Amino acid sequence: MIKVQNYADHAKELKNAVPTEPVLFLKPPSAYVKEGSPIVVPLYTSNLHHEVELGVVIGKGGNAISQTSAMEHVAGYALCLDMTARDIQDECKSKGLPWTLAKAFNTSCPVSDFIPKERIPDPSNVKLWLKVNDQLKQSGSTSQMIFSIPYLISYISDFITLEEGDLILTGTPKGVSAVQEHDELQAGIEDVVTISFRVQRQNQ
Ligand SMILES: CC(=O)CC(=O)C(=O)O
Ligand SMILES: [Mg+2]
């Protein structure tokens, strides 16, 4: 699974520079969690953030994919949460270390069921939202993305050969915040899907 930083308002709220090229990082398959199972907060973080994101599911692999043909490689979408241990990420950033423990731990990527491509005819203009315990925290549109989906597919495939089943998370809009044990996270793509996950602390 490949991840990017892609919304100027989120970069600003974290006091990061607005990226001029996509910032890429990876999550392993063990990061996936489906509804019915909890998001487990690792013992080593005290500042776990939600980030709601549109996920793009690759149907046809390839490398050096052109922007014009990029959408032919898309099978569909998923609504995803990029759970991020912000305290660990800040520490890694200050030391120039990779973000692996901040981003790639078990259950760090809650996902919806697969959404066929036809259900989102215009992925460049869909509304995403996230609530914590019924309180709205994130509300944005993929129209605010810095880099379009065709650009991301083309850019990534120049460095990493894309394979069928790969999932590209396309970045989060502003409004990220810390979650606590027993919180209920609900998120949605307007008129398409909603998901719901409970937060649980890892056992000592
Ligand atoms: C700073 C980040 O955590 C980047 C990220 O994941 C994003 O969605 O933006
Ligand atoms: Mg993210």
UniProtKB/TrEMBL annotation:
An example molecular function term from Gene Ontology annotations: acylpyruvate hydrolase activity
Domain of life: Eukaryota
Segments forming domain Fumarylacetoacetase-like C-terminal: 5-199
Annotated EC: 3.7.1.5, 4.1.1.112, 5.3.2.2
Annotated family: Belongs to the FAH family.
PANTHER family on file: ACYLPYRUVASE (PTHR11820), ACYLPYRUVASE FAHD1, MITOCHONDRIAL (PTHR11820:SF7)
Protein name (record): Oxaloacetate tautomerase FAHD1, mitochondrial
Species annotation: Channa striata (Snakehead murrel)
